[in-house]
Amino acid sequence: MAKFFGNLHLVLVVGLIAAIAVMVGYGESAPVTANGIFRWAHTFFGILWIGLLYYLNFVQVPTMPKVPAELKKGVTGYIAPKVFFFFRYAALLTVVTGLVVAYLTGYAHEALSFSGEGNVKLIGLGMWLALIMAFNVWFIIWPAQQKILGLKEASDEEKAAAAPRALAASRTNLLLSLPMLYCMVTANLGA
């Protein structure tokens, strides 16, 4: 049992198989469609992305100043690079699967241009907030973190300048995540 749960990839594969079994087993009451599969993937990647955003803002960033200097390398050398890998690719896959859902549902253009009605406008706002957040992840937070974590050559001055930039973008994403989540959840109540 410990060997199974100690293997992340095996747990994910078994979880995927279980999800497929549910899809097939309940296909009569909830037919399996491309839209449904992409919504499920969008939700999974969104939970991973926002979960890591909240982990970074609620746990790692506030705790780092309290971590003894000799232990910081454990976080910056091992934990943070892995967190940022999953963080940035979860952001990318959340956006991609969300855009596919919007396309398959037929409201991509109306949502992104705010020309739709009711829930479509709300989804559009949520989509734009998520796009801003993903931009922050890939073009502000990640380049700054590469310098801060020593994954990219940078002087001490460049690292010092990168830290407040990364923090501001991360806190902006935290702020935007709250209305974005409201838009996504509320717009889908009628879907």
TrEMBL record:
Signal peptide region: none
Source taxon at top rank: Bacteria
Task: Write out the transmembrane intervals.
Answer: 39-58, 79-102, 122-142
All residue ranges annotated as the Urate oxidase N-terminal domain in the record: 95-187
Keywords, sorted A to Z: Membrane, Transmembrane, Transmembrane helix
Note whether DNA-binding occurs among the keywords. no
Name the UniProt record assigns to this protein: Urate hydroxylase PuuD
- What organism is listed for this UniProt entry? Novosphingobium piscinae
